[in-house]
Design brief:
This protein is an alpha/beta fold. The protein is 37% helix and 18% strand.
Length: 748
Amino acid sequence: MDLVPALEEPLKKVVGPATAKVMAEHLDLHTVGDLLHHYPRRYAERGELTRLADLPLDEHVTVVAQVASARLHTFASAKAPRGQGQRLEVTITDGSGELRLVFFGRGVHKPHTELLPGTRAMFAGKVSVFNHRLQLAHPAYEPLRGGDPDAVDSWAGALIPIYPACKQLESWKIAKSVETVLPSAPEALDPLPASLREGRALIPLPEALLKIHRPHSKADIAAARDRLKWDEAFVLQVALARRRHADGQLPAVARRPKEGGLLDAFDAKLPFTLTEGQQKVSKEIFDDLATEHPMHRLLQGEVGSGKTMVALRAMLAVVDAGGQAAMLAPTEVLAQQHHRSIVEMMGELAEGGLLGGADQATKVTLLTGSMGTAARRQALLDLVTGEAGIVIGTHALIEDKVRFHDLGLVVVDEQHRFGVEQRDALRGKGKQPPHLLVMTATPIPRTVAMTVFGDLETSVLDQLPAGRSPIASHVVPAEEKPHFLARAWERVREEVEKGHQAYVVCPRIGDDPDEAADPAKGAKKGARKKSAEEKAQEAATAEKRPPLAVLEVAEQLARGPLQGLAVEVLHGRMQPDDKDAVMRRFAAGETQVLVATTVIEVGVNVPNATAMVIMDADRFGVSQLHQLRGRVGRGSAPGLCLLVTDMPEASPSRARLGAVAATLDGFELSRIDLEQRREGDVLGQAQSGVRSSLRMLAVIDDEEVIAAAREEAVAVVAEDPDLEHLPELRTALDALLDAEREQYLDKG
């Protein structure tokens, strides 16, 4: 892996301070080792043009293409009132599609002389849309001339590496820097044990680094990729295997439910039968709780599959066994919602110590940061005396002054929203390590779970409880078909007239002056009218408009298409009491339309809400859209989700929204999401504690490698837990898990 000692030379000493600064700030590359592990994303072949048809909007891209035409236009502007303004439009082609390049002003002269029809070059820039056509404004470019040894022959024969790049540093400049550090490749320490390498017929690491950067054939690339994927999979799986091994040595108190206790009383009063999936997962959890080592289990499942019910039964089992259970929720809205729904489900069983409480009852306490002093003092007292068997709270549970009588189980809802330090602080409040149940409402493909949560046993709920209604989803192309948006608001009215309610979701709040402002609003009243050409120039280089905001949209709806309906807003910067009051009114049916941010994304349960309109839906991820959609269709009436977007039909954003509209299968959508976002987000520190080390491995495509690496890692750690006989592997592990990240994984 990177940062092995021989390759720790700072880049500024090798490629110069200016280039090193850009690499550090924009590509997170700091040493020679980092740059050697910055692999080409793909390779262009001299005899073959790359596809322009699949360019992602709003991303920096590098393409190899041929100039089809170039036209110089003149126009009048403020700086050149006599028609002396210049714009160069160049059309490039790759045989599968065309792309327009635009250059303005003084920037036209060099490309006008160099980008002649027939010229082949590499082009790099940010893809934008103008007049419904994709374009690059002022792209950087590097002509590829057959006779120029620096331009083509130095790119290792016919294969031109295209590197992950940024606006400040194009792919070909990165390639020249790689050329400078390649002589260091033979010094790379090989983390794979020799027996593994030979048994799997993998080439040595130095050879793999040379072949990935300067391949002479496609076979070179394949051999290098096979080897480098193994490095990433194996070192990560060793880290997780060591974590599992260490957890297996810890003591814990076994927590078994007692016959005729709280759990039996709760099950007896349930008005429905648990699904087969809920029963199976509950058994897995109860078996874990009965052992004298801490449970570490991930509970994942479809939106609305009944994870909260499974978690509640686990908490009741722990209370039966004399312990306490704490549920950690990411927001006050969700903590209050969980508290309310758990108290309702338990009824008199949640009234321990109160008149009318059942014999087996316990107390269910809420603890959040915004509670009044008296309520907070009482909650803290309930915890330390053991009066409260179950506590539900936000990060307020983690504070030093919070003490438990006997904490036996920690349930973490929406695990990826908490830092490990927070989870660890709560787990540290047990006399012995408490059992841990991590819940996520985002379905995760098996390979991702194996890679990201490899230290947790995984339980999956993929059945929906009986009585759940289907949700119809449709994309609303507001820019192309404004009447579709008008119809969307009519549909909301129709749902309300049937006695139902609706959500409208926006990406932004709109109450912060620092939030992106609409540049059009800042125009001076008496300003000269801009020419069409100037407007075109601005549009070509301008960013997209700011995201729609809750406060603005709510006002427009209340005065316009939803006039006369009871419309309220909900967002994260409201006071907690106000948020709770809004949710209570919506749950009670007093509010007909709730305009909100993603604060409603998880856990919010209002069965009467049947419609959701998501504005600027292209600004949300696939999994997030699936989560949001899961807020409707929770009762007996069918749900409707409308995904509103201004993105053009051919854009990747529209394809993503189409995928969401086409299926309700969260596991399928999570695969699509992962394929589009790649692993950088999946293995981001927020989710796994490991800064994304995956540069070659694709967790969706490389399932066999990951599974095989896990087997090898388990065998290595079982034989040598401290890796005393594998110093190169230990060094690679230290590079992956520096002190801070090692601690992060240790805390889990």
